[in-house]
Design brief:
Helix content: 25-40%
Strand content: 25-35%
Order of helices and strands: EHHEEEE
CATH class: Alpha Beta
Structural class: alpha+beta
Number of helices: 2
Mean pLDDT: 93
Low-confidence stretches: none
Number of domains: 1
Strand order of the largest sheet: 1-5-4-3-2
Largest sheet: 5 strands, mixed
Length: 97
């Protein structure tokens, strides 16, 4: 059974900023990033049990890009809550806590 996904507002900001950054360099790369992001969400929706990074926060790396989606899983409610899309070289203080 697939999980539902809920997004915190920060996710929208992170994805938009990343998309705009890539658009400045290449519209093709920006589109590819967004496609890979959507593909990552579908993977998480079908099987959210990836590596726990901190406490109950899990992460899933977006294929081909240096970004990870940070989220938590509520097995009882079959719900994934996404908190952020983080560049992997960012200071760890920016990761969800």
């Amino acid at each position: 059974m697939a999980y539902n996904i809920r997004f915190e507002p920060q996710v929208y900001i992170d994805v938009e900023n990343t998309y705009l950054y890539y658009t400045l360099h290449s519209a093709v790369v920006a589109k590819k990033f967004y496609e890979k992001y959507l593909s990552a969400l579908e993977t998480i929706r079908s099987n959210p049990f990836y590596q726990v990074r901190y406490k109950s926060f899990r992460s899933y790396k977006i294929a081909g890009f240096p970004y990870s989606i940070y989220y938590e899983v509520d097995e009882t409610a079959k719900l994934v809550t996404c908190y952020a899309v983080v560049h992997l070289s960012q200071d760890s203080d920016k990761y969800p806590k």
